[in-house]
Amino acid sequence: MALCVGKSPGLGRNWRLELARSLQDFEGIERVFHFRPHEKERIKEVCRRYPPFITPFFLSLMDHRDPQDPLRLQAVPTVYELSPGLDDPLAEEAFSPFSHAVHRYPNRLLVVSTNLCGIHCRYCFRKRNWSKPTFFFSQWKKLEAYLYDHGEITDLLISGGDPFLMPVADLERILSLARRVRIKVIRLGTRIPVVLPFRIDCALLRLLEPYAPLWICLHVNHPRELTDELGGAVEALSKVGCSVVSQTVLLRGINDQADTLARLFMGLLSMGVKPYYLFQCDPAPGTDHFRVPVEEGRSLMKALWGRVSGLAYPHYAMDLPGGGGKVLL
Ligand code: SF4
Predict the structure, then answer these.
(1) Could you read off the pLDDT of 151-203 as tens digits, one per residue?
(2) Residue 114: which of 55, 196, 174, 74 has the closest Cα?
(3) Element (H, E) at 329
(4) Residue 44: which of 84, 74, 80, 79 has the closest Cα?
(5) Same domain membership, residue 257 and residue 218
(6) Host domain of residue 68
(7) Catalytic residue status for 252
(8) Pocket of ligand 1 contains residue 117 by CB under 6 Å
(9) Is 126 annotated in the active site?
(10) Cβ proximity of 81 and 301 under 8 Å
(11) Where a domain ends, among 61, 82, 103?
(12) Distance between Cα 120 and ligand 1 center (Å)
């Protein structure tokens, strides 16, 4: 049984209240951040298309006065987001046997479990889903039948949105189905321990423990995201049998310096998180200003070699536009 004591970050903070207090529209962000008068209408338009979502915890990590603050740049809309892009850059719809599932590689199924996130990352390649009032459980019967029919699937990735924002009963239903159909590897893609660490509470830990071993793929981009609260969440997850690895998106102005990446990857490793992927930013709408050219990304990887422990060195990779899958760079 999980030990829900000590550093469990859920203690004393009501995560539902934190979630409800998140900034979720232009009026909310305008109360905190200063925008130049000539930008306001365009930022309002960005918010209509792709609303912001910022938890009080993540907000507390930002320097509100600095428009170039690397945490602010990830979450606060800017006028640059009016540039075009591909709605579905990874062609997930083309590999979708039914809504909310993506079957691109023979042995792996991705379940888009919810469209709720604890943050709306401005570079997200699934930002098309943010405003859809769709929930995975309308597809439950289809998922069950599909997994029973496709014995070749041995690896299930539960992503979103963020699976740690699903109702716990629904999350348990998926985990239990996965074990029933003998899925060997279960991965959960999440940014919640970074932006809402209090959500990693006793109820969630108790739910996860019987399904261990589980892999947690943590999305984290900057060393300032490596808080004590995140450390507590990682420790609590590890105690219930979760192995935690990280995924980082290479982003202009946020983590495109070797020193920043070295501090991030070494900091993760010292928390017990294995840096797994450094991803090229996908060409979703409004993301051109975030993208770092591949050659520059390769130079950064070279600069990191020898500077960080081998264990802290991630794969540099991109998803080929149009559904070609992941390639190493
Ligand atoms: S947490 Fe993940 S799914 Fe949610 S907005 Fe950020 S990148 Fe997209």
Answers:
(1) 999 999 999 889 999 988 889 999 999 999 989 999 999 999 999 999 999 99
(2) 174
(3) none
(4) 79
(5) yes
(6) 16-82
(7) no
(8) yes
(9) yes
(10) no
(11) 82
(12) 6
